[in-house]
Amino acid sequence: MELNHIQEKIIDSLKNDFNKYEKNNINTANSSLSFIATWGENIGFENLKLNYLNISSKFELIKIILKDLYTAIKFSEIRYFENSTIKNQNKIILSTASIKDFNEQGSYFDRYLRIDSNNYTNYIFLLLYGSKSLPKKIDQNIILFYKKKNFVKGVFMLLISLIKYFCWNLSLKNFLHHFSDQTNFAKNFSNSIKNKINFKKINSILVPFEGIPYQQEIFSKIKKINQKILTIGYDHSAPHAMPLNMYHRMGSPDFLIVNGSSQIYHLTKFLNWPKKKLIELPSLRYSKDSKEEFKNTIFLPWKIFNSKKILVDFELFLKKLPEKSLQNLKVKTHPICVNKKSQDNFKNEIEKIINKYSIKFTKNLEAELISIFIGSTTGVIVALEKGLKILHICFDPVFDSYSEFLWPRLKVKKLTDNSYIYSLKEKGTFIKFGEGKKTFDNFYSNLDK
């Protein structure tokens, strides 16, 4: 079956699922089956691959469910840390943070919005914190929330859910809708935030948005407290090839900000978004003068799934090139990889192939510039908008590769079943580049007015 038809089948299946969920009063804001992230391991994605494509097994799904249940039981409590004298702020930014995002004075720099908490004291920053150690100091307009182990509470929650499970006629799907790490965390986190913030006095909340259950659940709950509050999501990344995680459902924000007209087309055509809820603004993350280095680089993915498949296609690509047609290539490992050793080993294997075909490379600066991406990545789009030629080698082309069917402003040339060359039909349709620090103040800070 052609790739386009497979992707169309997936989209149609997704729409049918959500229609069924709504008819059965399933909370699609926090259900783990409603969140399908095609770039990683999650219950929703594995369920989709098993039920509609037969490219997974029940064993794989059960394995992921068991890992998820263990995490749900283990980390079942939310704690918070503050130096808080919350004053009369009526705007909230909900984001994520690690120890690296804080300076010695306690200010927080948001990597998605590109702003410093110390410069925006009219906002309350609610931050989901992921590092083991807490900052020594934090600004007074910051509250950190973090997971805490509480095995006893986790087991109790599981037992309650199992009792309900028997009432749901032993349906595994119903159980997963109501009990998973994603679902439990979404409920606990949203309740913790409700206990700290009086949302009746809040005008707006801005979230770097990925359609994660806790984001959807928070939006859903605070709307019940204050219907007038403006919920705003910011799609901070260039789009994935199949961004199914962004499907419009219960708890989706009042408005979603995107950085290109291609996203507006895709979200309305395939992912159930009303066009009136979408706003196109310049990017905060990617600016005209940003210094990302893409040219003549091979980018490794966060997780290596099938290195042999990639190495075969990369060697085939080089073998077909004329002599001295490319500038020298460097290999860049992923900064937040799953396994550093596997990244280093994979890098070494790629470098061996580069050395084997050294005759294909030259130091001549007039030779062609290229970026090579492996696996699921949004870097493809950023590099395209920077004017580079792209080779994309996929682990799973159904979910990793960009198609003209889903993204009609791309030109796609298939080299092998797993390798593609991309080019843009029109620049600026995927990323409208921002202007650095000015962008937030000029376009984002007054969205609630």
The general outline is: globular
Give the neighbour order of strands across the main sheet. Answer: 1-6-5-2-7-8-9-10
The residue-averaged pLDDT reads 90
| Class based on secondary structure composition and strand pairing | alpha/beta
How many H/I helices? 13
End-to-end C-alpha gap: 49 Å
User: What's the number of extended β-strand segments?
Assistant: 18
Structure description:
This protein is of the alpha/beta class. 36% of the residues lie in helices and 18% in strands. It contains 13 helices and 18 strands. Helix 4 (151-167) packs across helix 5, helix 6 runs parallel beside helix 7 and helix 9 packs parallel to helix 10. It starts with a helix and ends in a 5-residue tail after the last helix. The mean pLDDT is 90.
Helix and strand arrangement:
Blueprint lengths: L2 H21 L19 H11 L4 H17 L2 E6 L8 E7 L11 E2 L4 E2 L6 E7 L12 E7 L2 H17 L4 H7 L2 H16 L7 E5 L4 H13 L4 E5 L20 E4 L2 H10 L7 E3 L16 E3 L7 H13 L6 E2 L2 E3 L7 H17 L4 E2 L7 E5 L4 H7 L3 E5 L3 H4 L9 E5 L4 E6 L13 H7 L5
Parallel strand pairs: 2-5, 2-7, 5-6, 7-8, 8-9, 9-10, 11-13, 11-15, 12-14, 15-16
Antiparallel strand pairs: 1-6, 3-4, 16-18, 17-18
Name its key features.
single chain; alpha/beta; 8-stranded mixed sheet; 36% helix; 18% strand; globular
Task: Kindly summarize this structure in a few lines.
The chain has 449 residues and is α/β, with parallel strands linked by helices. Helix content is 36%, strand content 18%. A hairpin with a 4-residue loop joins β17 and β18.
